[in-house]
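Suppose you are handed a protein chain with no further information: no name, no annotation, nothing but its sequence. What can you learn? This example shows the usual starting point.
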Amino acid sequence: MKFISLNEKTVDDAVLEKEYKGARQIGAIRLGETCFIFKSKMKNYYIPYADIKQCFRRVMGVNLKMCCGKGEMQVENLVIGDSEKELAVIQLPGTRAAQELMKEMKERVPDCSFTAPKRDEPAIAVQGGAALV
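A reasonable first move is to predict its three-dimensional structure. Written in structure tokens, the prediction is:
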């Protein structure tokens, strides 16, 4: 199994594969001992917990057109970033999964910021090609 790092630091594939198999799974995300691992399409990406400086939920409204009129569906996303940019935006299966994931992340990365940037503050830039769903 091949793993792709979303930052400059790399971890041995044998260590990651062992961690992947023993990790707790929430949707497409696996929480290992030392790394945050997620799958997007046919690739496995990872970010060491030490590199995560910002983690928050982003809820987006998606307009729907239904037989009885218009509606809106809420889509939960997890945003993982370092001090300069967003490393990944991952769609979650629902609100309950998002709440469980945030609880686990607070235990694994206690020194991380778990709040989104304010609307009048400049947001951290999205790294090219790393906004994954």
